[in-house]
Amino acid sequence: MPPSSKQPQEPTVEARTTNLRDVEPRAVRWLWPARFPLGRLSILQGDPDCGKSFLSLDISARVSAGLPWPDDIYNLGPAAMAGPADVILLSAEDDPADTIRPRLDAMGADCSRITMLDGVKICDTDGKEKDYEFNLQGYAAQLDDVIQEKTPKLVVIDPLSAYLGETDSHKNAEMRGLLRVLGRIAEERQCAILCIHHLNKTYGGKAIYRGQGSLAITAAARTVWHAGHDPNDEVEDQADRRKLLLSVKCNIDRRPPGMAYRITSEPAIEWLDCNIKTTADEIIQERKPGPPATERDAAADAILEVLQRGTVSAKDLESQVLAAGVKAVTFQRARKQLREAGRITSSRTAGTTHWVLANIVTGTPPEEHEELDELDDVSRHISSTNGQHLLVRQVNQVVDRGPSDEVGSQAQEGPSREQPLEDGRWDDYDDAMLDGRGG
Predict the structure, then answer these.
(1) Which of 17, 228, 291, 300 pairs as cysteine with 283 (C-beta 3.0–4.6 A)?
(2) Which residue ranges make up each domain of the chain?
(3) 367-391 per-position pLDDT tens digit
(4) Listed range (4-13, 143-152, 232-241, 418-427) with the worst mean pLDDT
(5) pTM, whole model, 2 decimals?
(6) Nearest residue to 381 (alpha-carbon basis) of 433, 319, 435
């Protein structure tokens, strides 16, 4: 037969739509009513030594043994209990034998219903098996297989950052993709997935911005909880201080009150009060010991945290620090201060500036590329017209000034209104002048 004269057709793309008339309304299903929903992703964040892992084990114990919750907001009585049901634990920081099992026993758990996901086993084409560490980037399908087999009501990932694989937690697109898969598993299997999450080092601000890495993590979760020390408890030993579990985000119901707890010597969680009015934003304002932190201190901490991962381009460093709520001008001043103190250094390759902690490299003087670094941050969004490059130089001058400089002298040194500027760049210049008063 002669070859077909038909040409291969180009793939077509069509939008998928749903008419809401065909959607059956349903109530939110809860693991722990008003606090942790079924079929959704939840986050528990907090500083070290606040018992985040303890809290996740307390919840796991109650689910496994069908124990009552310490509160009953909706007056559901026994109907509020989530179990007995299975639980899957992923724990990268605690030993199962000397830490996890003793804690669960002290909390009254039914450990026969609790399964730990240790890793994955891969068999190659020669039939040889090899064990690998589990991560969500490469093996989310295997997690789904275990969930289908065990049909748990709760999956705990402690901490989330240990199971990201090569995913960069500071990049929105990468984190949204990974968490979308995790959220879909939770919804399809109707289990609650609880991720333990560490805080970034930008002290103060709002609790919703304090989670480590991209804001996409907080955005993906339907409920976010913050564990922190009670600032009104004056017990000297931090381990004995009363701690608070407070709502940061709840976009599927009214926000419930906070709860107070203490970690006992058994070890277990002792719930003290289930009607705390303190907000997460209030306790997040606690400062580090020593002199009060400034915005520039917070920006410096954020810069150092990002550079702990290794060499980072100037563009990525700025975007990640600004994503933590730091102002652009404050970021640039903090970076300059760290460079002058010899704590970070830069190099320039193929026209791109990269930053790294100074103790990782040697032989690079801190002042090297100083002018190029400052120009790189401001000018990459600005074209090369003479008037616009004049603006770049003036903005850099504003950045290098301290908070005590007079606004009047800054304005006199800036370009005149008759000089050629495009695309509303006067607004950028004026904003820089205003930001130059503080930081």
Answers:
(1) 228
(2) 26-283, 295-435
(3) 343 443 444 443 333 333 333 333 3
(4) 418-427
(5) 0.67
(6) 319
